Amino acid sequence: MNTGSDRENESVGKGPEPAADEAEHVSKAPAFIKARRSLHLSWQVGVFVVGLAVIGAGVAMLVLPGPGWVAIFAGLAIWATEFAWAHLVLRWTKRKVTEAAQKALDPKVRRRNLVLTTVGLLIAGALIGFYLWKYGLVLPWNLKDQ
Fold this sequence. Notes:
The chain is mainly alpha-helical.
């Protein structure tokens, strides 16, 4: 009997098994909340609002004092507990951050960054030295009334 599947690992009526790293996203809500549709929808709205507030605070902290990126990623992690799209975005972000960290630890990149930083500091020091030589240093409490 032909079931329409040519693959051995598929059973009738089911699709292919997801890979271990691509497991189906499951809500982290308690079972009694998932059992009632209205409660689950309310739970999801609450998670969305809390995640949005944390991300909003993170965006504000990008220009204000505070750990802006940490808050943005925390808000995304809050969303990822309920929403599959946020889970995928968070997983992609973790992968890119890991790749960037690996690249930053490469000895050639570290050496290049050290050389560029040294050159930048030398240029900044030369410019500050020239300015002080040309105009001098007048401290704010030594200013004369104009």
